[in-house]
């Protein structure tokens, strides 16, 4: 699942997961983390939680949504490939169950520094996309986690307003420069033409 950003006043928050259900009777909560590794919990001791309407994706605009509330991480552990969180002040199952469905956020300025060749997913959203020939293709609008071996898909909004689903595999990303706000891609043969042709077929003026 992609990392969504939200801003409250001057603070930028990054979506990292969701609470799924209570575990046991001592206030532990099962957390689904969108990051590739739960090790982020060793670096960040404070989490920010926000309740979301059932069946909805988190609202990035915290000026109109409930602001995230701060919670202190008491401990966390792995149990059968699941992350179990213990928060300070959370002592029983009823309190833990009340967090079911809450989204988990961290402050962007508290995230650990990525490795030299890595970037956070939220840094990719909004990048201008170019082909290896220098032609502008569009803008990265959103990201998808297909759930298949962690494959990441970028949703690129093309210059003709077409939606392009781009498999962000290393062999297809020629250059990524978040400081310059651009990414150069070398997509599989025929991929871009497929989406442009589909857009033309759906345009009554060109049918």
Give a structural overview.
The protein is mainly β and 207 residues long. It folds into two domains: 13-107, RimM (Elongation Factor Tu (Ef-tu), domain 3, Beta Barrel); 127-195, SH3 type barrels, CATH 2.30.30. The protein has three helices and 13 strands. The two termini are 36 Å apart. Residues 1-10 have low confidence and may be disordered.
What is the level-2 CATH architecture name of the largest domain? Answer: Beta Barrel
**What is the CA-CA span between the terminal residues?**
36 Å
Our count of helices gives: 3
Q: Could you give a short account of the major beta sheet? A: 6 strands, antiparallel, barrel
Q: In order across it, which strands form the biggest sheet? A: 2-3-6-5-4-7
* CATH topology term of the largest domain: Elongation Factor Tu (Ef-tu), domain 3
| Record field, number of beta strands | 13
GO biological process, one term: rRNA processing
Protein name: Ribosome maturation factor RimM
Domain PRC-barrel: 117-192
Family: Belongs to the RimM family.
Please give a quick description of this structure.
By secondary structure, the protein is mainly beta.
Key descriptive features of the protein:
single chain, 207 residues, mainly beta, Elongation Factor Tu (Ef-tu), domain 3, SH3 type barrels, 2 domains, 6-stranded antiparallel β-barrel, 6-stranded mixed β-sheet, 3 helices, 13 strands, 10% helix, elongated, disordered N terminus
């Amino acid at each position: 699942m992609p990392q969504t950003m939200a801003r409250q006043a001057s603070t930028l928050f990054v979506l990292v997961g969701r609470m799924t259900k209570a575990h046991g009777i001592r206030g532990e909560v099962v957390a689904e983390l969108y990051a590739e590794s739960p090790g982020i919990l060793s670096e960040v001791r404070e989490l920010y939680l926000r309740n979301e309407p059932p069946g909805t994706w988190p609202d990035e605009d915290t000026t109109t949504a409930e602001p995230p509330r701060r919670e202190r991480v008491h401990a966390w552990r792995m149990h059968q490939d699941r992350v179990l969180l213990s928060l300070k002040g959370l002592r029983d199952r009823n309190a833990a169950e009340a967090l079911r469905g809450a989204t988990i956020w961290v402050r962007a300025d508290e995230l650990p520094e990525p490795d030299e060749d890595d970037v956070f997913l939220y840094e990719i959203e909004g990048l201008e996309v170019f082909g290896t020939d220098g032609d502008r293709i569009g803008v990265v609008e959103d990201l998808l986690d297909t759930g298949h071996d962690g494959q990441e898909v970028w949703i690129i909004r093309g210059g003709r307003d077409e939606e392009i689903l781009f498999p962000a595999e290393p062999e297809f990303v020629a250059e990524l420069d978040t400081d310059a706000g651009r990414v150069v891609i070398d997509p599989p043969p025929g991929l871009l033409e497929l989406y442009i042709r589909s857009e033309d077929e759906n345009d009554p003026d060109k049918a």
